[in-house]
């Protein structure tokens, strides 16, 4: 158990549950492995728990029917009903770690490493973190110790909350007129999240009310701004302000940060003790360098810069790109446009995720809202199946034969699952199958997640064309391919993704002695210590920095929380030592990079056929974290004193 945490009080879930009809209906539909975890939390009956183990499969969908025989399932529901409606509510006792480990393993139908247990406590919402400023014996930051947070998206909001709870004076600098970052900016039709929100959300603000397992963009934006509201974050935000440069002052040991008013262009300098970079990895739009694009007379919009008032009814539309954004946009507009031509440069694996279009029904909502620990155990399940449970897909098995097509048994199974889906959906269209199926192993680059009525169904529509002939140039009213095909279009949608290099974007960061971080990194050679810090840049903290993006699966929420925790631990170390600044040693930085590169050799992104935006111009992956989320989380609990210099 985390020393900074206390168990979630049972009073959060008033028992007994008096809406017996509601409970009966909820139990009938709720996820059975999750109900078993709730029951075991109270009953702690190991034999009963283990009697279910043979029927638990490792197959995940949120509402998958279980393989548990109906008499056993009903017995579990009856026991829970009795327990939760008993006039004498059940008493919760601490769970023995060995039983807890068995619970985790039974709940997901496979052996779970005991090392995951601390993650379970911290990230699944079982415990309520005590605000840092209330931890007995902790030395509070000196008055006026100020942290400047760059960016008010999902990371910046969480950083503000946690810095505030730790007693740090903080200001968030946000270039937009509102918070939300990606979810504020991305308003293209169909925008949503293809990783499940019961995990993709803050561990300290679990939301039992998600309307679907993969909500649309506006709902996520509402969640983020709602959380910001609850914690009073807005009062700390300077909106419509850009950070242009940050310069470390060696003499004063603080950062002089140049800010620009987005509306007037006026610049000013503010001073901060620390800078926390939360400007988002996928925030700087990538515009294709296609000859003639500027000459196109009609509207052309990047997906992240969509005009929500644009009416596409009856228009001839082109979409350039076939990544996750295009795969959400195209199905949302195909029914209203007169024609849609989609330009594919290279192939993306398409994997079926049947939950994408599934709403959370009222019975499940009841379970999430009223059954104690249901939403936490459900979150664990989602974390496992869409997070670290997928790690075997991206780590090469040295003994795996025929590495040309797959890299491990799990990766091969995922490939077959994807192929089965693609062949089923596109049966009778060998031309489309030929265009779609990649030759590199699945997970080699970001996969497209799809469900009924989505991307592949859209490609089958009579008014939709998937064009794989590369674009040669664009004219004022048309796109022309290399082989001379000319598509006259009214609107061009640029689903062409984001610029990851240079990693700082236009921001200039000057550390000790004026050293220039962007120059040190060059165009695309960003490196760091733990994805968070770099030597010679004291009190400069990155989030989702080099090699810390969780590209094997969902989990950006977990990485950003881990990094914020680590950053505040580091600041607390400075305060406790009576110092002013912290930075990693050169040796720690070098060692970390060796560790990353050694691990990267075993990862799918090093496969000779895998090409993606994770790789720099020399083929080095400078984006992805090659480790399990749980391992990365454990390394970011506390700065290693050997690796740090406090000055
Ligand atoms: P993306 O994955 O980078 O895809 C960009 C697409 O545009 C690719 O198909 C790319 O082709 C193509 N492209 C780029 N430049 C081109 C050019 N000059 N000519 C022709 N085609 C070009 O971008 P995205 O779809 O916006 O997604 C970016 C990231 O955002 C994703 O990886 C994901 O992490 C995140 N995202 C998440 C969700 C979600 O639901 N969670 C939704 C949307 C986006 P190549 O493949 O050949 O490079």
Protein model, in words:
The chain has 647 residues and is of the alpha/beta class. It folds into three domains: 5-131 and 363-388, no CATH class; 144-284 and 500-646, FAD/NAD(P)-binding domain (3-Layer(bba) Sandwich), CATH 3.50.50; 293-349 and 396-494, FAD/NAD(P)-binding domain (3-Layer(bba) Sandwich), CATH 3.50.50. 31% of the residues lie in helices and 15% in strands. The protein is built from 19 helices and 23 strands. The strands form seven sheets. A five-stranded parallel beta sheet has the order 5-4-3-9-21, with helices on one face. The chain has a five-stranded parallel beta sheet with strand order 10-19-11-12-15, with no helix packed on it. β6 (241-249) and β7 (254-261) form a beta hairpin. α2 crosses α12 and α3 packs parallel to α5. It is globular, with a radius of gyration of 25 Å. The structure holds NADP nicotinamide-adenine-dinucleotide phosphate. NADP nicotinamide-adenine-dinucleotide phosphate binds at residues 192-195, 282, 288, 290, 303, 320-326, 328, 343, 345-346, 446, 471, 495-498, 613.
Relevant terms:
single chain; 647 residues; alpha/beta; FAD/NAD(P)-binding domain; 3 domains; 5-stranded parallel β-sheet; 19 helices; 31% helix; disordered N terminus; binds NADP nicotinamide-adenine-dinucleotide phosphate
């Amino acid at each position: 158990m985390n020393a900074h945490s206390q168990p979630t009080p049972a009073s959060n879930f008033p028992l007994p549950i008096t809406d017996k009809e509601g409970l009966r209906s909820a139990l009938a539909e709720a996820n059975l492995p999750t109900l078993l975890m709730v029951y075991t939390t109270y009953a702690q009956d190991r034999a009963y728990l283990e009697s279910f183990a043979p029927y638990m499969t490792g197959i995940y969908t949120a509402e998958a029917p279980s393989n548990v025989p109906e008499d056993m399932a009903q017995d579990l529901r009856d026991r829970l009903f009795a327990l939760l409606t008993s006039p004498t509510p059940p008493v919760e006792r601490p769970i023995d770690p060995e039983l807890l480990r068995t619970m985790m393993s039974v709940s997901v139908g496979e052996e779970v490493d005991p090392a995951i247990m601390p993650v379970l406590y911290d990230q699944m919402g079982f415990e309520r973190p005590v605000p840092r400023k209330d931890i007995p014996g902790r030395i509070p930051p000196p008055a006026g110790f100020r942290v400047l947070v760059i960016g008010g998206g999902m990371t910046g909001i969480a950083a503000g909350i946690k810095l505030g709870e730790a007693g740090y004076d903080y200001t968030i600098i946000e270039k937009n007129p509102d918070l939300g970052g990606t979810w504020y900016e991305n308003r293209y039709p169909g925008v949503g999240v293809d990783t499940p929100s019961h995990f993709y959300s803050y561990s300290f603000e679990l939301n039992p009310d998600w309307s679907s397992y993969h909500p649309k963009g506006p709902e996520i934006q509402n969640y983020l701004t709602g959380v910001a509201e609850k914690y009073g974050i807005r009062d700390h935000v300077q909106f419509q302000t850009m950070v242009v440069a940050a310069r470390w002052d060696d003499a004063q040991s603080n950062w002089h940060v140049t800010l620009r008013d987005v509306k007037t262009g006026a610049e000013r300098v503010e001073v901060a003790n620390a800078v926390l970079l939360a400007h988002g990895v996928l925030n700087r739009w990538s515009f294709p360098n296609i000859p003639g694009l500027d000459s196109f007379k009609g509207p052309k919009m990047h997906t992240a810069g969509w005009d929500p008032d644009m009416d596409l009814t009856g228009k001839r539309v082109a979409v350039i790109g076939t990544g996750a954004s295009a795969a959400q946009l195209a199905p949302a507009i195909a029914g209203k446009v007169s024609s849609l031509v989609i330009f594919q440069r290279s192939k993306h694996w398409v994997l079926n995720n049947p939950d994408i279009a599934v709403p959370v029904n009222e019975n499940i909502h009841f379970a999430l809202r009223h059954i104690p620990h249901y939403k936490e155990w459900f979150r664990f399940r989602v974390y496992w199946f869409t997070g670290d449970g997928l790690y075997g897909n991206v780590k090469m098995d040295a003994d795996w034969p025929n590495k040309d097509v797959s890299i491990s048994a799990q990766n091969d199974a995922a490939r077959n699952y994807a192929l089965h889906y693609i062949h089923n959906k596109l049966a009778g269209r060998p031309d489309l199958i030929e265009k779609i199926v990649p030759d590199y192993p699945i997970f080699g680059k970001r996969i497209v997640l799809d469900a009924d009525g989505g991307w592949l169904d859209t490609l089958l529509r009579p008014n939709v064309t998937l064009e794989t002939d590369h674009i040669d140039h664009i004219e004022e009213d048309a796109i022309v391919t290399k082989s001379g095909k000319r598509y006259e279009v009214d609107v061009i949608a640029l689903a062409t993704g984001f610029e990851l290099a240079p990693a700082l974007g236009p921001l200039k960061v000057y550390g000790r002695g004026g050293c220039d971080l962007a120059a040190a990194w060059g165009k695309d050679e960003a490196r760091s210590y733990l994805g968070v810090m770099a030597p010679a840049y004291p009190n400069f903290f990155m989030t989702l920095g080099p090699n810390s993006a969780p590209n094997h699966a969902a989990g950006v929420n977990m990485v950003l929380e881990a990094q914020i925790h680590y950053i505040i631990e580091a600041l607390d170390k400075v305060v406790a030592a009576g110092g002013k600044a912290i930075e990693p040693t050169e040796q720690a930085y070098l060692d970390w990079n060796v560790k990353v590169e050694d691990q990267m050799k075993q990862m799918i992104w090093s496969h000779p056929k895998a090409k993606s935006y994770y790789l720099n111009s020399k083929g080095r992956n400078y984006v992805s974290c090659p480790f399990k989320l749980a391992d990365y989380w454990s390394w970011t609990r506390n700065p290693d004193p050997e690796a740090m210099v406090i000055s």
